Amino acid sequence: MASATRDHFSSRLGVLAATLGSAVGLGNIWKFPSLVGQNGGASFLVVYLLASLCIGLPLMISDLSLGRAGRSNVISIFQKLAPRTGWWLIGLSAIISCLLILGFYSDVAGWVFAYIFKSATGAVSSTDPAVAQASFSSLLNDGPVSLFWQWLVLLLTGGIIMRGASAGIEKVTRILMPVLFLLLVGVCIRSLTLPGASEGLRFLFMPQWERVDASVIMMAMGLAFFKMSLGMGCMLSSYFKEDVNIPLMATRVMICDLLVSLLAGIAIFPAVFSFGFQPAEGPALLFLTIPAVFASMPGGTFFATLFFILSAIASTGAILSLLEVPVAWLSERFSLPRTKAVPILLAGLVLLGLPATLSTGPALQDVKLFGLTFFDLYDALSSTILMPLSGIVTSLFVGYFWKKEHMLAALGGGMPARLVRTLCRTVTPVLITLVLLHGLGII
Ligand code: TRP
Question: How many Å lie between the centroid of ligand 1 and the Cα of residue 162?
Fold first, then answer.
């Protein structure tokens, strides 16, 4: 059976690092600032915090417990825990979400890799918004170059995952997370001491409640799903040992992850206002403002290069955890060695990623489905539709279907386990349903 051959993370710190390695990524430094900037700053932040706490945390605990109890891939976990039922569809939805996310995430990770070189050569070392914009656009407008970077990212991460999950994930993330964290603190300090920095802080911490509407709430919830890698946590925890305290671990991961996002916000928004960028710039925000902050300090070229190297590593960790979901399923379901499963998957991802990447440039930017480019469609479908839907079903599974004693035991018992069970029976599924129906304009 698969469980007998599965390897384990070697230590408790390894578990935390690997789970953080999945959570922390482009979501913190790229997506979070972009959404905060587009949706009114602090008010979005508050809604996002609430969504993380009431929806994200109980679901993350559920996911991790399911994974450890089922010790298998996302589909057969449910076939094991609930044989001859349809609950395995949760796993199918997880695999589809992972593929969609990989389709655009590998594109953005490619931009990060490209920026390592742009920073090292000083090509983006300017505080002038027009220069920064021109440099970013030249990357997006060049389809073959964008594809080159995306494929490089896929090849690199595919190569790591082929060597087995724990080894790859654990090694990459363990040492470098703290370094990225420290560097972010450094960028924050520089950003906060720029002239006019306080306006950025005001934007980040003074709510504009009139900006909160159904679609803002839906996006904040989507971000919580995306950030906490929900629906796929099961994959990681299937490599956990029995003595990991899951509720405590999930809470720690959530707090560390929020902290990194906040630091990214504090690094970016003061600079936005100081240099005259637009807060609602969207996906380009990271790539415009961070090089500008570095350009304004001594040793900027070196630190900017280091920043993008570490960001590339953080996104690699996240991509590994995304890849592991379909890889584990392919190899366990079809009894394929990883050396076969990974190339098959990579070929699929190259095809799936192609329209997303080309849709951020002139080739496909005018092709829209439901009013969205392929890039935005993959993002919206996964974060705001599929993951919330499987969140509802997962919470119902954990709250009602999973036998009470088994569920409580899987979570380690005690008050946290009972609280999660109560939330999964009530608040969590009801909230997600309301947000989803409201956000889609159905109620
Ligand atoms: N959480 C990661 C980030 O913020 C992205 C990610 C990694 C993810 N694994 C996932 C999202 C699984 C959803 C599901 O960058």
Answer: 19
pLDDT in tens, 211-230: 999 999 999 999 999 999 99
Extract the tokens encoding 140.
Answer: 């997006």
Cβ proximity of 345 and 158 under 8 Å: yes
Residue that has been written with the tokens 């417990």 in this structure: 65
- For the Cβ of 26 lying below 6 angstroms from any atom of ligand 1, the answer is yes
Q: If you measure from the C-alpha of residue 27 to the centroid of ligand 1, how many angstroms do you get, rounded to a whole number?
A: 7
Rounded Cα–Cα distance for residues 297 and 183 (Å): 14
Query: Is 383 touching ligand 1 by the criterion CB < 6 Å?
Result: no
| pLDDT score of 2 | 40
What pTM was estimated for this model as a whole?
0.94
Indicate if ligand 1 lies below 6 Å from the C-beta of 311.
Answer: no
383 three-class SS:
helix
Distance separating alpha carbons of residues 301 and 299, to the nearest angstrom: 6
pLDDT tens column, 370-421:
999 999 999 999 999 999 999 999 999 999 999 999 999 999 889 999 999 9
Nearest CA to ligand 1 atom 8: 229
Q: Name the residue among 43, 57, 37 with its Cα closest to residue 258.
A: 57
Q: What is the DSSP letter of 372?
A: B
Task: Work out the angle at residue 305's Cα, subtended by the Cα atoms of residues 253 and 267, and round it to the nearest 5 degrees.
Answer: 50
Q: Say if ligand 1 is within 6 A of residue 307 CB.
A: no
Contacts of residue 29, defined as CB under 8 A and 6 or more positions apart, other chains included, come to 184, 260, 264, 286, 311, 314
Cβ of 76 below 6 Å from ligand 1: no
**Is residue 233 within 8 Å of 60, Cβ to Cβ?**
yes
* More confident of the two residues 177 and 213: 213
Residue 255 and residue 241 in contact, taking contact as beta carbons nearer than 8 Å:
no
Rounded Cα–Cα distance for residues 138 and 250 (Å): 40
List the one residue out of 221, 248, 247, 203 whose CA is nearest residue 56. Answer: 221
Residue 28 Cα to ligand 1 midpoint, Å, equals: 10
Q: Determine whether the shortest distance from the Cβ of 391 to ligand 1 is under 6 A.
A: no
Type of residue found at 261: S
- What is the amino acid identity at position 171? K
Sign of CA dihedral 288, 293, 297, 300: negative
Q: What angle do CA 331, 170, 23 make, to 5 degrees?
A: 85
